[in-house]
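Per your request, structure below.
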């Protein structure tokens, strides 16, 4: 049912020495007061509040620190990210000293991952991207996933349960869950479980800050515990709705080209 597939960054980072790239980090946690209507918001109201922020965004650029842990190695790199909503996403990875180790481009129908150190381009249809892209990059709305603007799907009958400061939304199967912070109107955690109850995927959004008038997370964590894989993003700089975005993706003429034309092997049934 689920594909056991490590993040594509694992293949790119193996063999690289872990390089500190975090620099000075500012710890923030903007949280307004809970709204007066809490804990009595309906599902429609919750989704409406969550959707409002993303409706104003057309794209973003970011400078980030990316830390990756796999069963084989842990590493930290600097990442430069550019994304135009409903169009393309570009990411460049550097272990430091101005050296670009890899770059990736995701379009509405294809993905391209270029390992510059090994001179290898891996590419294929987005249908087969799960083995090479972390879930937020292969999903339907990358902007929402990366900026913590996720909204529970409208066609799911989510069960809403409040506690002292959050709403917990669970789908009818009990396998998927969102934790919503009504003070910020942001999802702070998402979980997906296998049918036997194991945690398959988790996303966490933390250290919220005001960025150009919006409350957004500085720290984003993606986990797939069954693969013992964890990716953590810390946004050092964010620029929302940039006027111009370019997605130049050059590849060496002598680079090996590997076409992915079949889905990955699946496990976790």
């Amino acid at each position: 049912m689920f594909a056991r597939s490590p993040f594509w960054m694992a293949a790119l980072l193996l063999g690289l020495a872990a390089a500190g790239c975090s620099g000075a980090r500012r710890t923030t946690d903007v949280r307004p007061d809970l709204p007066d209507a809490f804990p009595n918001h309906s599902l429609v109201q919750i989704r409406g509040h969550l959707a409002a922020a993303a409706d104003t965004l057309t794209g973003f650029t970011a400078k980030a620190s990316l830390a990756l842990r796999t069963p084989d190695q842990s590493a930290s790199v600097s990442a430069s990210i550019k994304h135009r909503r409903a169009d393309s996403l570009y990411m460049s990875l550097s272990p430091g000293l101005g050296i670009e180790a890899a770059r990736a481009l995701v379009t509405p129908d294809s993905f391209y991952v270029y390992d510059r150190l090994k001179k290898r381009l891996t590419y294929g249809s987005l249908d087969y991207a799960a083995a090479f892209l972390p879930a937020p990059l292969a999903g339907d709305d990358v902007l929402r996933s990366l900026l913590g603007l996720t909204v529970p799907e409208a066609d799911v009958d989510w069960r809403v349960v409040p506690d002292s400061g959050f709403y917990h939304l669970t789908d009818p199967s009990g396998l998927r869950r969102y934790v919503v912070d009504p003070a910020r109107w942001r999802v702070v955690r998402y979980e997906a479980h296998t049918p036997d109850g194991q945690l398959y995927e988790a996303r966490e959004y933390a250290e919220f800050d005001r960025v150009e008038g919006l409350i957004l997370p500085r720290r984003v964590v993606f986990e797939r515990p069954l693969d013992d894989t964890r990716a953590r993003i810390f946004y050092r700089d964010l620029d929302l709705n940039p006027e111009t975005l370019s997605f130049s993706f050059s590849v060496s003429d002598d680079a090996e080209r590997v076409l992915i034309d079949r889905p990955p092997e699946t496990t976790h049934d």
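Helices lie at 8-13, 43-54, 135-138, 142-147.

Regards,
D.
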